[in-house]
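Suppose you are handed a protein chain with no further information: no name, no annotation, nothing but its sequence. What can you learn? This example shows the usual starting point.
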Amino acid sequence: MINDNPREWSNLLLDVLWAYRTSKRDAIDCTPYELVYGHEAILPAEVSLRTVRVDGQRHMTSEAYQEAMSIMNLDVEVKRAHALDSLIKQKRLTVESYNKRVRKKSFKVDDLVWKVRLPMGHKDHFYGKWTPQWEGPFKVTKVYSGNSYSLQDMNGETTRNINGKFIKAYHPTVWEKYAQNIQKSFPEF
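A reasonable first move is to predict its three-dimensional structure. Written in structure tokens, the prediction is:
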């Protein structure tokens, strides 16, 4: 529709909004129109075809119609409360699903960590796709609130504070462990 005439989108906006507001949402288990007005929208086709619902309202007196609407308005509060409960439940399920995949990282003073190379995604012309994404190891020298850390490289040079999402635990390689064991066994070397 819009692909044929992209400049005519404003003419279709009312129709799109009507379709959106009168279609049922799984999250709230009803239509947005129903939450606002207390009953389902009467579609133009129902008026022209004179459906049972429309004919029933045509033969009502104004007092009977007002009483029917006030009864529906009482039900609206129940529907809104139910919709709110559904949204809260769905939000909780989304949070639980997300938190299953998130691993909490926390480091202590003197932990060894890798630090991401900034700017992220920068590739060296010489190494290309083999450009290292992490640098280090660094030693954590201070832990701040808000998952922020102060780091020091192995030469004793302090770096600026960095957020915990940009560091990860450093695990020495087999050869580094081997070299450390030899150094402990033979300190004179």
